[in-house]
Amino acid sequence: MTIARRKQVCLSVTPYYHCVTRCVRQAYLCGFNEEKKRNYNHRRQWIEDRLLLLTQVYCIDVAGFAVMSNHYHVILRVDKNKADKLSEDEVVERWLKIYRGSVLIQRYAAGEELGETELLEVSKTISEYRDHLSNLSRFMGNLNENIARKANLEDGCTGAFWESRFRSQALLDEEAVLRTMCYVDLNPVRAKMAKTPESSKHTSVHRRLKERVSGLLPFRDSLKASSNSSDLSEVSLSTTFKQYLELLDWTGKLIQKGKRGSVNEKEPSIISRLGYTPNAWLNVQTPTISWRQKALGSKDRIEEYCHAVGKNWIWQF
Length: 317
Description:
alpha+beta; 2 domains; 42% helix; 317 residues; 5-stranded mixed β-sheet; single chain; 13 helices; 11% strand; 7 strands
């Protein structure tokens, strides 16, 4: 049974969500289509570029992403506090980067003199825009609609391009965020599309290594806080980039059941610092993501999430 998005997204519990969108059957997002003898690899850049543009508009950061042949993964951090603190002019400036806005909003942005009633209507509209800027569904809807329109125009057709609405999982603690980031960044390696994470184009790890200013959610500069901290409110990831790379390489080296590829690298020291053995980390790293799981995290955090969204239980491994 389909669950309303508002009943899955609970920002008071966690700002982090793992989202996936898949193409309709026989429709290619990227890669080479043998039937049509056409290469669609350029569409990978469409998604990457659109993601980065949307982070400049919405108060939502991209922590990780991977664009595959017929689907893509993205890990988002919703920053509602940032949206609430924006001035009215800042809200309008962001909104008009990708939307036309109402006639009144256009006049307001142009600096025209407005009457009292018109200003009240503008203020009401800006309040709606502010709510949209921290709305996960709005973000994903804009991304998917833009890519679908461009792909249909290129293919000379109409109709649905995506299989269904996007799927989402709530990431409830630091461990859930890190293991899902590893899962996403290693997707091309597991599918034997690349030999190493750093050679996996159109993934967040590749972009972080390639671009000095990646446009993605930053890692922490130093681990002054305890590694056991579960505070997800900070506007940065819970580890340093160097440590994440070591963790990613180590995780990629593990051979997972049902996955074709792995990374042949030496075991890094970060695993011992986190207190995991290879088998223990492999178990929590979740070889296969099941979308029956609407939330990932510790038992206590899942119970908190269930209470917040009004569910008595939630399926988990």
